[in-house]
Amino acid sequence: MPLINPPLTKEDFINTRWLEVINSSETKECLAYNRVFWNKAQEAKEVGNIREQAVFETLAFVTGAAIKPESTEEFFAEVFQNLTDEHLNFLTEIAPEVSEPELQARIADILWVKKRNYRMAQLAVTAYLQSATELEDPEKWSWCFERIERALRLARKINYQAELVLAHIEAVLARYNGEDPLWLSVKLMELLQEYKLGNPTKYAALAEKAAIIAESSQDWDKARNYWEIKAEWHRIDKNAEQTHAARMLAAETYIKEAEDSLTKHPQPYLKASDDLQKAFEAFEKLKSQGTEEEKAAAKARSEEVRKLLPQYQKQSLNELITISSQFNISTEVEQAKAYVKGKKFQDAILTLALLGIPSKVSHLRQKVQETAWLSRFTPITIMNEMGKVVARQSSDPDEAEKEIRFEMYRIAVDYQKLHTLAYIEPAREQINLEHNVQLKDLFAIVSNNPFVPPGREYQFAKGLYAGLIGDFFTSTHILIPQIENSIRYLLRRQGALPSKIDIDKGIEDERDLNTTLFPRNYSEINSIFNEDALFDIQGLLIERSGSNLRNRMAHGLINDSEFNSPIMSYLWWVTLRLCCLPMLKHEQQVEESNPWVKFDSIFKDDPLFDDFVENMAANRRELNAEVAAYEASLEENQSA
Questions:
Q1: Rounded CA gap, 10 and 18, in Å?
Q2: Is 383 helix (H, G, I), strand (E, B) or coil?
Q3: How far, rounded to the nearest angstrom, does the alpha carbon of residue 154 sit from its chain's CA centroid?
Q4: 353 burial class (0-12, 13-18, 19+ CB within 10 angstroms)?
Q5: Which residues make up the CATH 1.20.58 domain(s) of the chain?
């Protein structure tokens, strides 16, 4: 922002009649103020009023960022780095004059973070509470909650009037009495629990009331949240019996949701199967907690769910989405958008996970065998961006199977890219267009999930959220090691030991994906993934002729631009699929009851893709010929 001379003063601020400008905004919130401030700055510029223009540009700048309550000081420093000392001095001068709490809280908070002005931090606490009162709306609860949360975090940090914020929270909770329609009371109680504030007995009763109300309206996510909140209040109060009872009720909501899904969901048994899978995982955790009687009760419920789950999965075979690919990819793009359009977020994200499956191994093998004669004359070589050969197909007749699988992994990459461009990315973008997704929205997917080990929920949610909003740099770095750990976790649940012990040194090391993903090392992997899913993950993560993302990332071989590749989106989708769908086979489950085993490849016999593959093969042959000629010239020079 340009500076003017002499610097702006309080009088300049007052002369703009700023309060009239704010009153013209229908919403008393900073981002709404930002728009009217910019408009006034343009008006002032047009008439040549430089000082008024500078005032409104400064106010527009400070209100233009969506500040989250947990934002770090580094975040503030980066967002407001263009605020010079002159701007900060001007804001310090006008802060006490700002009678509108939303704007005053923002200015005072910036001055606290940027200048460590303790008086401004105090002012921000009270202003945030006043703004929360004005913005309080149970239907648009996030505005109110975010300001209360920021007030409490700031009050605790500077040790100033935290009791005032607590009183405000308790007044809001008392006013709604567990009957607010959305999530305000949920979030306020979670905030109290984070700081160990509030009366556990009182709020455990309130959480129970709210949970019962939510169940009566079939709002299962909210009901589950309230039962978990009730359990946490009892845990804080050191009442183990009530804690376990509340957690059992939370687990029961998955079963009730499954029953509800059978009557309401467009894919009833598919959705109900997912619900029961989560119920099973929740009871599995509880059967190792509490008294012997409590463990037995949880185990009994776990076994009941386990017997019912294969029946639902078998019924879901007829509900899988079938996609037919035509000649023009635009048809698939519009089809993908249509599948997720207009759905609730949880339904839309599950639908996205259902948009196709990994390529069938049998189909890939057939493709390779049709062109096998080519590789006998020109074995395939794969080079990286530096021209180094990173993979070379064997031409040894004794290694025919290796030769075939080498080409199968390579072709699978092309399928993955096309699937991403045709379906995954259009559907992901449509979901983001319709939903303001936040990190917390992903916890419903990863909680009590058979693919997510306990204690890894936040990392999976963070990785899935990053990929959902298109930050594949973050999602790739988070999800690859979590997939690796999850596979070890699942192998252990199957009775395998995915680690090695150095007897001499007395050290036990975990085995990596290069070992754990192969049946020759761990036959149990076949009871976790079907053949197609296992092949897809192998090629995606560890095979040289595939994408080999795990090994390339581990050794720092992925450059910045590659994180924008469709393959990174495909990796995210595969992880989403593993988390969303009950792909994992149970120990006593027959293959026919698994709905994912028989899902046909969406690009099978697709003329568009056949042309695509043939073009890729032609380009490869030209490149191989150039490489062969170059290598021959080197040999001639060496012999000379």
A1: 12
A2: strand
A3: 28
A4: buried
A5: 248-319
Q: Which pTM was predicted?
A: 0.66
Residue matched to tokens 């071989």? 557
The secondary structure of the chain in percent helix, strand, coil, rounded to multiples of 5, reads 70, 0, 30
Give the residue from 282, 134, 158, 165 showing the smallest Cα distance to 220. 282
Answer positive or negative: Cα dihedral of 502, 504, 505, 506: positive
Sequence-distant (6+) residues with CB within 8 A of 482 are 456, 459, 460, 463, 575
**Count of other CB atoms within 10 angstroms of residue 96:** 14
**Range with the largest mean pLDDT of 179-188, 304-313, 616-625:** 179-188
Which backbone phi and psi does 383 adopt, to 5 degrees? Answer: -115, 150
Residue 204 CB-half CA count within 13 A: 18
Cα-based distances in Å from 309 to 58, 273, 610: 59, 6, 39
Give 410-437 pLDDT, tens digit per residue: 889 988 998 999 999 999 999 999 988 8
Longest Cα–Cα distance in the chain: 93
Please report the beta strands in 50-163, taking only residues with DSSP state E, as ranges in sequence order.
Answer: none
Question: Number of C-alpha atoms within 13 angstroms, CB side, residue 399?
Answer: 13
d(C-alpha 450, C-alpha 40), whole Å:
55
Name the E strands within 479-588: 499-502, 507-510
Q: DSSP assignment, residue 382?
A: E
CATH of 248-319, picked from 1.25.40, 1.20.58, 1.10.1060, 1.10.4160, is 1.20.58
Do 105 and 131 contact (CB within 8 A), yes or no?
yes
Q: Is 464 exposed, middle or buried (0-12, 13-18, 19+ CB in 10 A)?
A: buried
The structure tokens listed for 194 are 């984070």
Distance CA 573, CA 355 (A): 10
180 three-state secondary structure: coil
**Could you give phi then psi for residue 585, rounded to 5 degrees?**
-80, 140
Q: How does pLDDT run across 91-121, given as a tens digit for each residue? A: 999 999 999 999 999 999 999 988 999 999 9
pLDDT of residue 440: 87
Question: Residue 570: exposed, middle, or buried by beta-carbon count in 10 A (0-12, 13-18, 19+)?
Answer: buried
Distance of CA 184 to the CA centre of its chain: 22
pLDDT in tens, 549-597: 999 999 898 888 889 889 999 999 999 999 887 533 332 333 333 333 3
Distance of CA 358 to the CA centre of its chain: 21
